[in-house]
Amino acid sequence: MDPSTLASLSVTGPSAEPAMLINSLKDVIRSQVQEIDALQLLLKLGRGCKEMCHRPSVVRNRSHVPSQEILEIQKALAKALGYEDDATASEMEADDDENDQLFNLPECLLAIKNIKDEMLALVPEPCAFTEGVLLQYVKSLPDDGNGKGDTSIVDTPKLKVEALLRCAIPAQDQITNFCGVSAAESHAAESVLRYLNTVLGYLDDIQYFLNIEGISELTIAHSMGELMYQKGIHL
Prior knowledge:
The chain is mostly helical and 235 residues long.
């Protein structure tokens, strides 16, 4: 065997296998490092959420991790997992710009004011509003007394109130974070949520009778003054 053939075998032969094995091990280690980084970031996110949920200034079950913190963790997580690209980065930056408008005090106060204006335009007074909705439903009942009336008469305003409430909750949470629980701004925002929750409770009460108990039980409850809005219960 001549020297050139021997040299060729030494490159492509058994001695090449350790090099391939080393490269494979490097790939495995690199992948594991990325997974560890990702898990550490997830742990950091979990701790951040836990800390936010236990802050006394945040209303229970409505706490939110600040959007900037979430975005930073998302970007770092995407980078660690190798998923980050220009489109993802630009989308996160755009979301950050939008959230900056919501998560500063003046914008949150403005949001609550706009929601309150819409709320009062829709529901000037909770008891009278609910009574009006019920009367409209009664008028939609068939003349022969069989079957249901138009349930959208109750469903539609309920959906509108729910939409206002979903918009009000994050703004109210941030106002509480900025100003504290005892601040006048926090009490004003909380009053908007209580108003909306009260209206929603009244409509839920009627909807329960319509969907579960039936119109006859609703009629009896109304005649006895047992409906929530008749009692003037505030949530």
